[in-house]
Design a protein that fits this description.
The longest helix is centred in the N-terminal third of the chain and has 38 residues, at 56-93. 72% of the residues lie in helices and 1% in strands. The protein is mainly alpha-helical.
Length: 569
Amino acid sequence: MAGVIHKLNQKKNNSWLFHLFWILPALFLLVFYFYPILRVVQRSFIEEGRISVLNTANLKTGWRAIQFSFKQALLSTLATLLLGFPAAYLFGRFRFPGRKLLRLLSTLPFILPTVVVAAGFNALLGMNGWINNILMRLFDLSEAPIQMFGTLGAIILAHVFYNTSIFIRIAGTAWERLDRNIEDAARVLSASPWQSLRKVTLPLLMPSIISATLLVFLFDFTSFGVILLMGGAQFATIEVEIYIQTTQFLNLRLAGMLSLLQLVFSMSITALGRRIDKMSFTPVIPVVDEGNLRKPDNLWKRVFIPIMVFMLVAVMVVPVLALVLRALMVPPGENAADGLRLSLRNFQRIFINQRDALFFVPPFIALRNSILFASTATMLAVVLGGFIAITTRWSKKIGDVLDTLIMLPLGTSAVTLGLGYLLAFSGSRTLIKYYPLLIPIAHALIALPFVVRILQPAIQSIPEQQHYAAVMLGVAPRKLWWKVDVPMIKKPLITSAIYAFAISLGEFGATTFLSRPEIPTLPVAIFRYLGLPGMENYGKAMAMAVILLCACAAGFIFIENLQETQENQ
């Protein structure tokens, strides 16, 4: 992909290919980001050609959504810090058995789709979850004793599960990278452990801690799937209210206004986070300095480690295990003779239409759609991301502009983007005909910043001397990209493709606006089946969630191993 660089470097300013490399991503952003956002702004203020304002009822509804968005985001962030900060200390300073596996399992939620998270907690704490089933059997109860779903506590718990991994990944990695000799020097100078932490460690870690906290708050603030699946419509954040006002009341003016406010809030938080992130020395993917990790040397540390391990396993591992076991078990009450036993029945059912319903879309079709959309989105994101990375090498000025523009979708909620697409591309029969194509386009737009962040350093690091040496050894200039560059960027290229595929596979917010009933994706199908009555539908939802979990987990583990191999070379 980057091999064309050398061949065209001498005449890049006059090359049509150079201009193509930056014009195509710019057009993509113009058509599929700025135009939909402009339609949202237009819909917010203009009605039938004139400027209008919202009525009192709409203003009250919008204000309630804004208040609750900040309230639940603040509470969720504080709860995440209560678990995330000691977890970051655990991984940043101690060596203990099972550390690598626990870290992998604790950071896995970083890439899990929200529907999988909701399905995991449903399998553990739902009406038909393991804990309720066990309690009902032990105490001979007729109703589930734990009513977790539909409460603010369920939302906060899911956010802690989902976002603690972010805090571990950013603040924990910074703690790993922080030279422990600095702390030891403070102790030699008669500083107590608390003084060393407060006056030495925390000031050095503060940029990473603030960056992680802002990122957690942003994800909590823009949360959609967790709120909708764990709390319900009665807990309407800005994201959920946009969805409700659009799909149930067709109140596009209020939805557009809320989307605009959401965009402003998210962009402000993202801009602040980027400024702080420049002060931080923490990489996205950690590289452990084993010299900073030590075994516990006193009693409280020996107690602290097992307590934290237990808490992390209980909060971040048990829900995933509950989901897998629930999908592999025959649902209680479905066959009294069988009882609870391992079975693949739920997985078998997702491939057939047992009731021969005329308008039924088998879950297998949703799986096929997700793979097709994810493959298309991956190709788009990798190609456009490669173009932007090459442009940055050829022209830093144009590359910096593109780099800034592609970060804007990262601060835009997927629901706002979905509403923008609905307003921009559903106004004629011709556009509606090709409407499903917007799904992989939206997914590619969301994945593009991650792809560029991975490919850009790899392409920038290719030395020109490699090209000169290859030409001197007889390699034709047109073959440089294949002989020299592709082998050098192969691993980052694979990593970026897996990231894009996983993001697309689990995307839920924008897809809820764009998918048709007959063309669902896997997350949308899981959402539908969780809302249907009957143990059969519940089992199908669990099975599909496990498939989605395995796909994302396999990609995550592959990326981690690939990165570790690259660092060891």
